[in-house]
Amino acid sequence: MKPQLILFFALFILTLSASAQKQYKLAKSSGKLNLNISGAKVEAYDGNEIIFSIPENRDEEVDERAKGLKAFNSSGFKDNSGLGFDVTVKGEDINVNPVSVANQPKLSIKLPRNIRLSFINNNMMYQDTVMLKNLKTEIDVSVTGNDIVLVNNVGPMNIKTLHGSVDASFSDDLKGPISIVSVNGHVDVALPVAVKANLEAMSNYGKIYAADELKIAVNTTVDVKTTISGVASVKTINVGKSIPSLTVRKSETNENEAKGNTQVFGFDRGNYAESLNGKINGGGVDLILKSNHDNIYIREKK
Question: Of 159, 162, 169, 234, which residue has the fewest beta carbons closer than 10 angstroms?
Answer without folding.
Answer: 234
